């Protein structure tokens, strides 16, 4: 008895593992150990088990079923059928772009937002020309922000799990009486539980991707927009994204994704997000031109462009100890510009951990875009110090960097406001994505 090398090679291809060296590293062994395992002389069954099989004249599969039948579903992972059902996320990556700057809607397009937060995605889609018919959000401060800025929006405050289970059409604030054009939202990135075979929605229960999928299946919009952190691409070795793509495909959508950098779309911030677009299959059959992501803008704003004449606002100061350290860092610099003894003391164990770590003790320059804003302005690993003052960015500066207009007011404590802005999709990035969707829908 030996390991089927053909099945291993096929599984490596499906999981984007190029070499046996890479496979060996992933499973925590040396290349020579893996080569020995895959040789014709290697038997994966221990000698005592073989002796038991031979003495009792019981085949291996029958013995395993008899002794550990409850785990057989896991053993079925490596079968021709299950491997054939796996998908390669990179086959869904779309590198097609189109100029959308002069696009305007030719019809009254509707959008329902899930996980709306403080409204970055919603506002951007509105600026593109989509009309909000609902915004679902749990956080009370974010809901107050949405209601303050858009009193006419149907802000549906509540747990999306309960809303989806009860049916969005049954909610008193959902009054759409026609086909929905766009469903949008950025659900959290969470690992899934695998049973060995794909069962569509059954694979994703217990995650916040599940209610999003429920609402998608209930409303069957023409198009959906899902955005997330760039890390989703390789989260859980790609299985998380691949399961999402599988579920979307089973729901009747042709799916595309790409990672878009906000700096390429008139935002003074290097912030990368994965954007997933799904188009209902009946539209795919009728389309005259395919969907394309928005073409990169020639404008590359930097911090001085974003913060020009920014209004004063609340903010969080550094501690005196941290302020003394950051005073030593020049604009555009970070911990590498500190004296060695101060850098070692400030960074602690991170000083010896290797890697880039250029976010620590980082002061942004006026002549560069900001690095990705976080939900807290003074986290040690991801500091974003003001260029000419030794302090974190204030909340209106945060909002400007995220391309919110000054007219967009935020509700809640300073901590809550930082969190709302830091979690948001940059408004201008959302607008570009919305224009690309409108450009596609205009053909029907």
TrEMBL record:
Residues 19-63 form the HTH cro/C1-type domain. One of its GO terms (biological process) is negative regulation of gene expression via chromosomal CpG island methylation. Keywords: Methyltransferase, Restriction system, S-adenosyl-L-methionine, Transferase. It catalyses: a 2'-deoxycytidine in DNA + S-adenosyl-L-methionine = a 5-methyl-2'-deoxycytidine in DNA + S-adenosyl-L-homocysteine + H(+). PROSITE patterns: C5_MTASE_1, C5_MTASE_2, HTH_CROC1, SAM_MT_C5. GO terms for molecular function: DNA (cytosine-5-)-methyltransferase activity; DNA binding. Its EC number is 2.1.1.37. The active site is at residue 189. InterPro entries: C5-Methyltransferase, C5_DNA_meth_AS, C5_MeTfrase, C5_meth_CS, Cro/C1-type_HTH, Lambda_DNA-bd_dom_sf, SAM-dependent_MTases_sf. It is an enzyme of class 2 (transferase). Belongs to the class I-like SAM-binding methyltransferase superfamily. C5-methyltransferase family. NCBIfam families: dcm (TIGR00675). This is Cytosine-specific methyltransferase. It comes from Enterococcus rotai.
